[in-house]
Amino acid sequence: MDKHLISQIIFYFFAALTVASAAAVVFSGNLIRSAFALLFTFFGVAALYAFLGADFLAATQMVIYVGGILVLLLFGVMLTHKLYDLNLKAETFQVFPALVAVLAVFATLITFFLRTRWRAAGPQPDAPTTEAIGELLMKDYILPFEVASILLLLALIGAAMIVRRKSE
Amino acid sequence: MIGLQHYLVISAALFSLGVMGVLTRKNAVNVLMGVELILNSANLNLVAFSKYSAGNLSGQVFAIFIIVIAAAEAAVALAIVLSMYRIVKSVNLDRADTLKG
Asked: Which residues in A lie closer than 8 A to residue B91 (C-beta atoms)?
């Protein structure tokens, strides 16, 4: 077997994993199962980043999404349900109209994605990206970088303020 | 060969599933999961275009900013969900109707 075929097989495996687990997130009837399916979606997207040669982003995705946001979401599930409430039913409503609307959106997106002739750059060599991204953040994108740090600080303070109990 | 189109199709599927989750779920935490799917699909698009269409790393830098915003959004949204749970004893979004006239 040549290298192209193997990498294609791996790509399709991760693509299928991503989409299937995302479907499980949306259609599963159990909150905890949705949260754990989301783990596989994040993992699959990280693998796709690795396929795109974005090594730093793949690592960031694993650390922040899987290690941070997913744990936060699980905290959210656990803290908003009684501990003895074992069947964490995830209720749904207006499934059929939503399905029709979403299928229309999906068809439109696919049509435009496949029919547009995107500008193509030449094949990029897969080089380590961390140093180049760090340089971009410190040179071209220094203002958004600082704004993002202030946003994180504000989110930290705001989240703590919102959940704080009112002192009598 | 795996090309740009493959990634675009995956991200379109992720986006549609995320919108589906936001539209149909009643549980606030579940809606947040849908939003995370949407943000991930946008990120995948940015990185794919960064490699195949732009040929530089700007798309990846934008993806990092989106991850930052997603983290901030998740923290604040879960804080809101927790305080909503404290007030109405439920995270069902139908119960968040205090502002309704």
From this structure: 80
A6-35 pLDDT, tens digit per residue, is 989 999 999 999 999 999 999 988 888 899
Q: Tell me what the mean pLDDT of segment A126-138 comes to.
A: 89
Please spell the DSSP secondary structure of B34-98, one letter per residue: HHHHHHHHHHHHHHHHIIIII-SSHHHHHHHHHHHHHHHHHHHHHHHHHHHHHHHS--BGGG--T
Q: Are A39 and A70 in contact (CB under 8 A)?
A: yes
pLDDT digits (tens, 9 = 90+) for A139-159: 999 999 999 999 999 999 999
CB-based contact, A31 to chain B, within 8 Å: yes
What's the CA gap between A140 and A133, in Å, rounded?
10
Round to whole Å and give the CA distance between A118 and B44.
16
> What is the architecture of the domain spanning B4-92?
Orthogonal Bundle (1.10)
Residues of B in contact with A91 (CB under 8 A): 25-27, 92
- Our measurement of the distance from residue B25's CA atom to the centroid of its chain's CA atoms, rounded to an integer in Å, reads 14
Residue with tokens 């693998």: A47
The predicted model scores a pTM of 0.90
Task: Provide the shortest C-alpha distance from residue B101 to chain A (in Å).
Answer: 23
pLDDT at A85: 61
Give the ipTM of the model, two decimals please.
0.91
Separation CA A132–CA B18 (nearest Å): 32
